Every structure is written in C-alpha cells, then in structure tokens.
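Record pair follows.
FIRST:
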Amino acid sequence: MTYRRDLPFNDLPSISPTGVDLETPIILKKLTSAARNLGELNGLCETLPDPTLLINTIILQESRNSSAIENIVTTQDELYKATIEAPSDQNHATKEVLSYRDALYVGLERMKARKGLILTNSMVEIVQTIKQNQAGLRTTPGTALKNAINGEIVYTPPVGEFVIREKLAALENFINNDSESSIDPLVRLALIHYQFEAIHPFVDGNGRAGRILNTLYLVQQGLLTQPVLYTSSYIVQYKAEYYQLLRGVTETENWQDWVLFMLTAIAETSKITTSKIRNILSLREALEHKIKEALGASYNHGLLNEMFALPYLKIETLEKKKIAHRQTASTWLNKLSNADVLRPQKMGRTTYFINYRLMEILVN
C-alpha cells in the first residue's frame, strides 16, 4: 500500500529494515567516532568516587532540553530554584521538566528490578511519571501529527490498541534480545528511537519517553554506567532536521541519514558531557580549598557535596538535609558569600545562595 501522511500507518514495517545497508563506510566511520567518545565519557564516570553527586545536575540539563523540544520552556534559574522548593511553588513548565528527571529514575529502577529488561509496562510508567497522570496506551483514533505553522498533517501513527501493542511487543523483543540482530548497539539505538516515535504509543509524552528510552538502552547495553548523556541538547539545536529525518525514514526509507544524525548526536553530546564533568571536577577541587579557607575548623564536606548536587541553596535546605542547624547554616552561607564562593540572590522573602560558577559550566 502506498504511504499517505493522512492515513494511520498501520503498515509500519518491522524494526529491522530489510535490504538496507547499515554498515556503509560513512556509517562505520561515524560509528567509530561515537563509540570512542561515548567510551571516554563512560570511563570518566567510572572513575568518580560518588557519581550520584554529579548526576542530578547533568540529568536536569537533559530534562530541560528534552522538554524544550516539546516547547516546554523553563529558565535555568527557575529550574534549579525549583529543585529546593515545594511543588506548590513551581510553575507548570518547571514541574514538567522535573517530572522528566523523575521519569528517567523510574525507568532505571524498573529496568534494574526486571533484570535489565526494558518493557512496555515500564514505558507506560515513564509516561505516567512525565505527565503526572494515569495515561495508558492510545486506544482511540484521531491522533495525527501536524505542522505547527500551517496545520498540515505530516504523519498519522498506527491506530488501534491491538496494533499498537503488537508493534510495541516486536520493539520490546528487539531491544531486549541481542541475538535478534548483529547490528552495533549504537546503530540499533537509532532504529529503536525511530520505531518508538513512529509507533507513537501515547497521546502525549512520546518524544520525551523516546529520549529516556535512548538513555536506558545505553545503560542496559553497558555503554554507560550512569545516565548522563543528554542527546536532547543536540536535537534541540537541530530540531527541524531531526523531524525531517524521522519523516525521511517513513516516506523514503532514508535510514542512512537518520542513523548518521543519531550517531553524530551521541558523539557530540558525549564530548560535551565529558568536558562538563571534567570542568565540574576541577571547580569542585578549587572551591573545596576556598571553602576550607572561609570556614576554617567548621568546614563540612556535606556542604561541599550539596553545593554540587544543587547549585541553588538556602538555609532551610541545609537544615532539611541535616547538614547544619539554622544558625550554623546561615553563618556558613554568609561566609561563603563574602568569600565569593556563592552569590546571594534575594527573591521575595527568600535568599538563595548560588554556586554561580557551576551554573556557568552547566549552561554553556
């Protein structure tokens, strides 16, 4: 049957494209680069004494960029301030960005609990966490992806719960059964990402869930020990090309350009993430000396850790984390402000103490 954008694509082919050469010289060259850069990032993560101290800040950047692809925009200040505030004080966009971070953690927990398997039920839980509701798979017709400017239909995904479940089951098998294909895992990731987005199994949240799936797959395959790669920064930069190449696979089976795009995203964001982590480690070492000078005998290592887990601090944060009583916390933060380690910023009745050098690394 001839493909038509305005009709449900129930004939979406199997994930393993037949008769398509995925080992062309140009793909293999890009694959080598992506694998090398990703391996360097993973090696750096494995040397960290406590990687969880860095993960939160890196993952928040991925959350923000992935949400921005869906036109959910929050500022860096709003985002990091929200990490230490109650949900009632967060705006809608910021809540959605933080929900993305929570959804990634949910996905990792489910994968570990299910012996490394990435299952359809896990995808459902991920989307429910992103959207903060009980949404399941699409069960009603009428979904069509449209051009935001002129309203033209650009793609109509498969329709019917049975069809969607059948295609997700095939995708699930491809993800979890390495013996199904000899294709390199990074190329497989490109195929998986396309297939998930083409199935479009949910009413909303598909793009963000698909990008979480990318990270989960890299962890599952042992290519990353920590979920720190944020390919969304590359996709945000080349958003129009990203959607154009997705449609190119659907309409003309142009797999090569799509695979090259995803391999480039992995290569480039691996380099960026590696650089950010190294810069953060250097900053942490430099600030540790400055903090010890400013606080003297009252130096607390927990305070240093908190400064790099949360770029925005306030007195109540240190109280809540049981790092210091209120008076001590106030004294520490003010001393660090006077020493130009932190930068105070008053918003309403609250004074936030910002690790501004860390923020500069994260946003650039």
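SECOND:
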Amino acid sequence: MKRVGLLIVLALVAVGSAGAKNNVEATLLSAIPKQAAPGSTLRVEWRLAELDSGRPFGAGGVFLRLLGAHGAVSTAVATETRPGRFVATVVVPAGGIRRVRIGLHGFASTPQGTKPGDLFFRIVNDPLVDVWTPLRRQLQVPTLGPNGSCPVTGSADKFNFARYGVARGVGPGPAYPIGWGDGTIAITWRRNDVDATLWGVAKVLWFVDPAYRGPVLVRGIGLDNSYRVRFDRGRIPPTELRLPEGTKDRPSYVRIRKPGCYAFQIDGWTFSRSIVFRAAGG
C-alpha cells in the first residue's frame, strides 16, 4: 500500500484518538479575515503535516468548517493539490466567523459498532485564538535512563552560532538555550536579585534561528513529573516563557524547585522539541 493510502487508513481507524490528533497538525497558508461578511466566499489553503517528522499528511475526506452565530455552520470539502496541501472554497456562515476547524471524515468505534465520526486537527496559526493557545501541546518528555540516569541533550553541532555572535546552543533547534554544554544548569538556591529562596535560579539565554518565522513557547517539567520548570521573576514564577515572532535572543531566568533531571519542551508552529538537562547547585 502506498504511504498516503496507509495514512488514510490509520487516520480513519484513529478518529477520536488524542494521539492521532496531536501528531498531525494544520497550518493555514492563506489569510482568513475575521470580519468577512456572512454569505461571502473564501478560498482557503492549508497544509497537514506530521508534527514529529514534518512529513506531509495526505488523505481523502479532508474538509474545512466555519462556525458562525447561533449554531450556523458552513462546511466545504477540500481538494488536495499536492501531498499534504489542501484548498477549499467555503461560504461564510450567518453571524460571521466564530471558529475555524479543519477535519477528516472517518469512522469511530463504539460499543454498538462503527459509526461516522470526524477527526479534527489542531490549527497552529488559528487567527481566531491567541498565538499561544495552539502551542500548549501536551507535555511529553523523555523518561529517566537506566538506574535513574538523566539522558541529557547534547550540544547543537550543525548550526553556525558564531555567525550570530552567540555561544554554542543545546538541542535540535530552531530555539536553543545558550551557555551550557555539559548537560547541567548551575542553579542557585539562596536569596539574590530575583529572591530565589524557594525556587532556585539560573540565567539562561535563548536564541531563535532567524530562519524560523513564528512564536515559540517554552515550558518544562521534571522527568519524574514532580515539579514544573518556572521562568523569570515573581513570588510564584510563570510556567511559560514566551518568545514572540521575530525574537532573536531573549535573556531569561530559569527557576527550579529542587535539584534533579528536567526537560524543556519547546513548541512552535511546525515543531515540538524536548531538551533534557540536570539542575544542580546549592
């Protein structure tokens, strides 16, 4: 069976599966005007791609749905113009556009047998929500190694950091923490300029490859799921570090509750990466 055909079968079997929804995401390639007049038509293009590999996701039965006011709905069947690229012409529903959904017709298994069911894909650049909501994917970090060892992430060897005047970063990019290459972030647990009495603190510079266009969301958690990584200042520091589109470098404070093995999860429009590190110090 050809790869596209296999993907179709898997998608149909996986309708209602959170794993399938999270692994394939949609990116809009054309603008959807928020104030489009009801009854007008829009030509909308988008791509579907596997989050982990970036490979195009091709399937039949893909559709675009606009939700309007008071339950009004407008749905249009998509045409796949090339692998993973789709286009549809849709009528704006009554009340204007309140929500955009991209889905795949399929079948879901129930105790009573199979019945039609739709799989909906996350739209990572949905114009009707804030830019950070689609990037809050489920935290999925590696497990501890044998005997509880910390599987730290190595330095990035293929990117030319010197070109931009920064030290070598860590991880696969396109957003890199800079300044520690041995897998360990030295944390200070004592009162200092950011009052690190409870949450330890370390300065970490983040650098974003200029070739990437889009926002980046950084979060983190211990590999034993005991404590969340926190960032910057505050009596209770935030659990998110937001790098808006166009950010080149961003000095930050990483805040850790206790020593251990942690991972950053770095999410952008087209990627989700993990970087594992040890938090140590005193």
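COMMENT: The radius of gyration is 22 Å.
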